[in-house]
Amino acid sequence: MKFGIFIDLQLPRPWNEGDEARLFKEALEQVELADRLGIDHVWVQEHHFLEEYSHSSAPEVFLAACSQRTRNIRLGHGIVVMSPNYNHPARTAERLATLDILSDGRVEWGTGESGSRIELEGFGVDFVDKRPMWEEGLREATKMMCMNPYPGYNGKYFSMPHRNVLPKPVQKPHPPVWAACSNRDSLKLAAKLGVGALTFAFVNAEESKFWVDEYYETFEKECSPIGQAVNPNVAMLTGFMCHEDYETAVQRGQEGAQFFAYGLGHYWRDGVHVPGKTDLWKKFQERPSSADQKMEKERKKAGMRGIGNPKHLIENFRALEKTGVDQLILLHQSGSYKHEHICESLELFAKEVLPEFKEREAIRQKEKAERMAPIIERIENSIVRPEEMAEVPRVEAYPLMWKRLSSADAQGTPDRRPGMTAFWQMQVGGKRSKK
To answer: Confidence class of residue 433 from pLDDT cuts 50, 70 and 90?
Structure first.
């Protein structure tokens, strides 16, 4: 089983001058440390306007910095919001390819829809449109990365003319695609579309076995890829804090894991937020005892299973490994975790826990590759490859176009493409009228 770390850039109030800069610099140090320790992936969220819960609104910039400070760790978008209102598909393709080049082909392309009202409406997205927006943007962005040129698209949520989207990524036809999954339905959808499942939900070993089996069964029997290649993998999230003394690990890690769950509830389920005013950390600290009981129930399910001493973690992680989970993502920075505690935790994990899994991971990857090869080959052979343009229309520079339009008008044959008559009147007609 592989291991990743999760960057959400949480920053509870009160905020002091320089706190955000310190948070970002410490997070970069944690990624550098994870790379040196042999951790496989770093996943960086994209969220907007979620005060205290996540200040990670430009993961492409953060990951670019990581690419120049690391050598081996895979750089994961966890996730890119694929709605064109957030990120135009061409811009997504350009940024991912650039990062793939800068990192020598280490990009993992996690994708998602976004879900909180404060984010969706901030970018003018109707809740009912978020999934079809994700599908449309993802499908077309994968084509942009491997077509010369991309033939253009006239869709429901975005349109663009034919263009050659540059640069092209190192990984062909595009970096491995993942989708954020918070329940079984979204996990099955990921399998049907041939993308990895980033399961951002705490599940125990019993549930994990069911989820993993269902994912791979669905992938084998129902997969119709949305991209130009498939990525059959399941990753799951766990709370994390490691210390030689179990009680110390719980004391350091419990509150942060609970704040992570509390923030989810506030922004996604039952919170009332006043932008720039709500003190989420204060509300969390003052939550009623009934909320504590509910959170304790959730904690026992899985979120705390990565918080403890090395022996405790090995036992719990082995249980997940046996269910077939491909990667465990460690929620290593949350709430008011101290930077020095995070680094100590990662170092102890790498010394005492990680070696218990590394050797088996190499064997397991080989066995999985052999088992999945004929299935993947059959599915990828079914992909309908996009057709290259037989004839690529030329695109004139503006002065040439204006000259041609002016000449056409003189002959009584103005350009009738949608919108071009008004454009011509503004650019050409206006100039002529001044003469």
So the answer is: very low
The phi, psi pair for 232, rounded to 5°, reads -75, 100
Task: Return the higher-pLDDT residue of 219 and 293.
Answer: 219
Closest CA to 314 of 348, 357, 347, 345: 357
Cα–Cα distance, 257 to 259 (Å, whole number): 5
Domains of the chain, first to last: 2-381 (3.20.20.30), 398-433 (no CATH)
Contact between residue 70 and residue 39 where contact means Cβ atoms under 8 Å apart: no
Longest alpha-carbon distance in the chain: 87
Bridge partners of residue 7, in order along the sequence: 44
405 to 113, 329, 348: CA distances (angstroms): 42, 58, 70
Total-model pTM = 0.93
- Residue 200 above 90 pLDDT? no
Q: Strand 159-160 vs strand 153-154: parallel, antiparallel, or unpaired?
A: antiparallel
| Nearest-angstrom CA–CA distance, 411 and 413 | 6
pLDDT tens by residue, 214-238: 999 999 999 999 999 999 999 999 9
Q: What is the pLDDT of residues 52-65, one digit of tens each?
A: 999 999 999 999 99
